[in-house]
Amino acid sequence: MTRPQNDPSAAAVQSAFDELGRLSFAEHSLDSVLQTVTALAGRVLPGEPVTSVTILRERGPATVAASGRLADDLDQEQYRLGDGPCLSAARTGVPAAIPDTRAATAWAELAAAAAARGCDTVLSIPLPVQERVQGALNVYGRASTAPVDRTRELVSRFASYAVVPVSNMYLYETAVERAEHLEAALDSRAVIDQAKGILMERFKLTADQAFQALARISMETNTKVREVAERFVQSGEFPSA
């Protein structure tokens, strides 16, 4: 498809697409990716937008990143109400919107709260479904003077493209965090097993008895079992088992 050569907004949006496509995991964090998305959104979209990312977790929805207080506050309002574009998009995988918060029939309570905060439009685009992650990229437009249909078209195009690097970076950082937690867990298990082995040899205990001895000191001193094990392995000193 050939893009109109005399449409400056189309050229600006395409330029933003190109910049988003060049984002590198090695050079960015989730926060910096969102900051980039926000900066580009402000450059190419009407309505002085702020953005956020909603992720659905077992304990409930959460905003994992937001470019401004308005976005976070309106996310929280939707979590309180139990419904809204961000939750709908995240749950169904279908984009959801309030094109005009001052003339909304759906999500009327949220629309009223958004209008009172100076937010004219709300659009949420679902994150691509990967590794069972459900979420949405939310765009809150302020002081929009462009026609509603044109605004929605531009925001939809931009958000549909921006959601990919945001989603991928979230998954990348989540994977790194899980790996770090796994490494820490393996390190803890290793030192606890080492301490158990010393106790078993020194006091002729079973594996279960050795762990119970470590757990008893942990409870008495209000210290993690791993820390009790580390001290014992390093010092060789342990209360009577």
TrEMBL record:
Keyword field: Kinase, Transcription, Transcription regulation, Transferase
One MF term in the entry's GO annotations: kinase activity
Annotated ranges, domain ANTAR: 172-233
Any coiled-coil regions, as ranges: none
Keyword hit for Transcription: yes
Domain of life: Bacteria
Record keyword Ion transport present: no
Protein name according to UniProt: GAF domain-containing protein
Species of the source: Blastococcus tunisiensis
